[in-house]
Design goal:
single chain, mainly alpha, Tetracycline Repressor, domain 2, elongated
Length: about 190
């Protein structure tokens, strides 16, 4: 990774923390600059606007936290299911480990974003579609191996799991119960099994 990419990535790491703790609307460019310790010109070298920055942060979050929770086509459904659930359980531990619960950054941004922010809106939609593809791959494998109900398309069941994930993350921002959050994901998957 070249220096420019590393700097851009380190700014995105800080952005993830700030947006998760304060929300998109409450985070101004000055707060970002103060936290990262860079001048305004350096920020605008990497990002055209706060909206472009938020879109880059969402992409970074997805690449670092969600994409790695993917199936291995070379192993069976039960092994993949265990890996995926463990990945989400680990993410729950990370998101709710500090004194301030953060929830899922993408879900939080989706709640705040409006059509007045077309770049961020489009980025979140694209990342959502990618997330559904990842979840659908697991569910489709389970359907093919006879473990997941086949009366509904894998993409529909993936959307149900994703919605359960986001609802669980929102609930945990009000009352942090990591065990209940983990149980909710397992129970959602159990409702899909035969």
């Amino acid at each position: 990774m070249n220096r420019s990419a590393a700097s851009r990535q380190s700014i995105c790491v800080v952005g993830e923390k700030l947006f998760a703790l304060h929300g998109y609307s409450a985070v101004g460019i000055k707060l970002i600059l103060d936290e990262v310790g860079i001048p305004k010109g350096s920020f605008y070298h990497y990002f055209a606007s706060k909206e472009a920055f938020a879109a880059a942060v969402a992409e970074h979050y997805f690449q670092q936290r969600i994409q790695p929770i993917a199936i291995d086509p070379g192993v069976n459904f039960k092994a993949n299911l265990s890996t995926v659930l463990n990945g989400y359980h680990q993410l729950i531990e990370e998101l709710f480990s500090g004194s301030e619960p953060r929830g899922c950054l993408m879900g939080n941004l989706m709640v705040e974003v409006s059509s007045q922010s077309p770049l961020l809106h489009q980025t979140l939609n694209q990342l959502y579609d990618q997330w559904i593809v990842l979840l659908s791959a697991l569910i489709q494998q389970g359907q093919q191996q006879g473990h997941i109900r086949a009366d509904l398309p894998a993409s529909t069941l993936a959307s149900v799991f994703w919605s359960n994930w986001q609802g669980t993350m929102l609930r945990c921002q009000i009352k942090v119960d990591k065990m209940a959050a983990k149980r909710a994901l397992v129970q959602c998957m159990q409702m899909m099994t035969r």
